[in-house]
Amino acid sequence: MESDPPGLRQNLNEQLEGIAEQLRALAQARDRLRGLLSAVLAIGGDLELPAVLHRIVTTAMELVDARYGALGVLAPSGDHLEQFLTAGLTDEERAALGGIDFPHGRGVLGHLIRHPEPLRVDDIPSHPSSVGFPPGHPPMRTLLGVAVTVRGEIYGDLYLSERRDGRPFDEDDEEVVRALAGAAGVAIENARLFGYVRESAEQFQRLLLPTLPDLSPFCGAAVYRTAAEPAGVGGDWYDAAVLPDRACAAVIGDVVGHDLHAAAAMAQARNMLRALLYDRRTPPGAVLTQLDRTVHAITDLPVTTACLARIEPAAEGSTLRWSTAGHLPPLVLTPDGGARYLHAEPGIPLGVDPGIHRPDHSVFLPGGAIVLLFTDGLVEHPGHPIDDRLDALLGLAAAHARLPLDGLVRTLADHHPSDGHDDLAVLAIRTPAENRPARHL
Asked: Which of 88, 281, 310, 324 has a Cα-to-Cα distance from 25 of 20 to 30 A?
């Protein structure tokens, strides 16, 4: 058998090499597509706008293996950058740029603002629009810039510089970054919508919650924070009022759910309770029971926890009477630095069985004591036992007990030991330093 002619073997080898090159190109394209899909999922995983913008930059850097990345957000006028987020700079490089203002869109960066088409530059210093770098800026030679559009309008520009292999950016890099920029526009819009919904939910919730009235001779303060989840309107509520017999009534509650139904139920329960409180000297447990029966008869109230306190002025201090409906106990801070929970039989939540009696409890409070009522959003954390989080809150409250009441409740809300995934409310009442015994009216 004769051997194949040399020309035939060479032709066959060339065909095999061509097929192998095509297979490598297909594999590379497949890997890049897979990376792009993973990148799209990644940037859609955040809902806070700053986190989304940072994720867009770092994800684009990973896709094209760039050393540096930035996202410039356009001002409403559209002619300059009002925000500039960077990634890839070392601590030393950031320190070298200390005191230098961020770019506002001059030079090559401004070229992309004026001409929002993808821009690839192999040598930045020689580009006609280049104005040079500020002192301390790391050396950058190559650039890939792509506009990011949100709802048909240019939101900003995505910039990448310096491929780690030292080569200029190519058409494939441009194509994949353009695809990412399209997904980025959707992620930015989702984050902005989330921010709008959360802000609207918080404003709606605040409209439902009362502004505390003058509680003299008591002092009161309250704070409410929405949940970190979308549409964070929820069922946390509070109220306080001085009753005709000079006692101060304070209540905090939590309707199960995080939707408009929960918020509406919260408003109904709060309004009914305020009316019931003016039935003077009724023990808190009886008031909660009457509230449960009333809402059971006229509306469909979801399961609700609550803690109702009645603080009565007395000689040398005050008497605190309270009852809970499946709620966390009150926390008391005394002027001598003491801090303790008032653990007692809790009773069952509202909306379970209106016929079951709820126990009442009482304790003497010195003048100037603080009664803290709060919802579980302040302390619940899936990674920690509830007792551990309650202990953390106890220490936090004791450490800041000397703050004005407004500062105290804000500090507890700002530094809460929970995971932040539930709405929270805190209500604080300080007893008068000196009291006269209450008159029986």
From this structure: 88
